[in-house]
Amino acid sequence: MLGSKLSEFALAIWAYQQIGSITQVALLVVLMYLPTILAAPLAGSLVDRWNRRWAMILSDSVAAVCSFVALMLSLSGHLQLWHIYVGVPILAVFSAFQAPAYSAAIAQLVPKQHQGRANGLADLPQGVAAILSPLLATWLIGVIKLNGILLIDCLTFIPTLAILLSVRFPQLTQRTKTNEGQTNKFRKLLQESIASWHYIKTRASLFKLWIFIILTYFTIGMFDISFWLLVIKFGSVTKFGIVVSSAGCGMLAGSAAMSAWGGPKRRILGILNLTILQGFVIILLGLGIKLSLIIASIGVFIYQFADPIIMGSNRAIWQSRVPLELQGRVFSLQLMFQRGALIPAFIVAGVLVDHFFEPFLAQSLIIQNTLGPLIGSEPGTGICLFLIALGVSKVFLSGMLYRDSLLFHIESSSSILLSD
C-alpha cells in the first residue's frame, strides 16, 4: 500500500506539472473510482468462486505490471499523460477484486471473537500510508525523481507477492462445476450479484446498517472536500501539512487501538456513539478552524481516530452475520456503493456551499451577529457554516437510530430472525 500510494502521489504531481489543470487531475480521481464501482458486482461473484488468495495475487500482479510499464516508459522518456489515463482504470478494475477478497479472507482466517482486532490491524497500513506517503512522495520526487519512486513501487510487490504465495487459506465448499457457455456464465455471475443484494435487502437489520454506512460515506465525502478546501483557503502550505499529518496520525492511532482492543463489545453502539462524536467534531471544526491551528489539528485527529473503529466494527458485524461463501459478493456491493457515494458527495457539497451557504451567510444578519465573530463573514466562510450544518445532521441521524430496535439489536441472534 505504501509503494502504491507513493506512486499515486508522484504521478498526480507529475500529471499536474505536465498540464497545470486541477480539472484534469480531478478526472484522474474519477477514473480511480468509477471503474471499481462498475466492476465490483461481477468481481464479488468471482471472488466467491475463486480462491481468495489467488484473487489478491491476481490484483497485485496486474498492479505490479502496470507499475513496471510506467517505470519503463518513464526511464525511456516516453511516459505521456494518456498512458496514465489508460493505466488508472485498469488498476481500478482489478482493485475491485482486492478489497472484497481481503475483507472476506479475514472472516475465513480469523475466529469471530478476534475479527474486530483483525480489522483494526488490517486498517493500520492505511494510517501508515496516510502519514508517510505525502511526506515521502514530495521529498523523494525531488531526490530520486519519478523514476526512483516508480522503482520503489515495483520493488514493494516482491515481498507482497511472496507473502501471498506462502500463506495457505482454508478451503471453502466448492461449487459443482457445470459445462456452461460463456453467456450463461456471465448471466450466472449477474444472478449471484443480484442474489447477494436480495440477501441484504430481505434482512431489515443488515439493510438498515447498510444504508447508514452508505450515508456515512456520503458525509465523509462532503466533509473531506469542504474541510480540506477550507484549510487550503485560510492556511499556509505548512499549516496544511501539519493538519494532514494530524489526520494520518489519528487514523494510525485508531487502527492501532482497534487492533489491540478489538472494538466495543456492542459494536453497533460503538458505531453510533463514535459517529455522533465525529458530528460534534465537525461542528467544532466549523466554528474554530479559523481561530486556531491547534483546534483544526486536534479535531481532525479525533475524527480520523474514530474512523477505523467505526469501519472495523461495521466489517466485524458483516463478517459474523453473512455466510463465508457470500462475503465476497456482499463486500463488493459495499465497495461499489461506498465508492459510489463519494462522487455525488463532492458535487453536492460544492453546490450547497456555492449556491446556498455562501449567499445565505452574506444575507443573514442573525447568522452574522451570532456566528460571525467565530467564523467570519467574508467570502469563503460559507464552508464553515456548511460544516456546522453537516455536523448537526450527522449527530441527529445517529441519535435517531438509537430508537430503531432492529438496528440496535443487530448483533443478537433474534435480530436476524425478526428481519428475515
Describe it for me?
By secondary structure, the chain is an all-alpha fold. The protein has a single domain, classed as Growth Hormone, Chain: A (Up-down Bundle). It has 17 helices and no strands. The C terminus is likely disordered.
Gist?
The protein is mainly alpha-helical. The protein has a single domain, classed as Growth Hormone, Chain: A (Up-down Bundle).
> What would the average pLDDT be, to the nearest integer?
81
- N-to-C CA distance: 39 Å
Structural class: mainly alpha
What count of domains describes the coordinates? 1
SSE map:
Elements: H1 2-19, H2 22-49, H3 52-75, H4 81-109, H5 115-143, H6 145-166, H7 182-201, H8 204-234, H9 237-261, H10 267-288, H11 293-321, H12 327-363, H13 365-370, H14 372-375, H15 382-400, H16 405-408, H17 413-419
Question: Features of this protein?
Answer:
420 residues; mainly alpha; Growth Hormone, Chain: A; 17 helices; globular; disordered C terminus
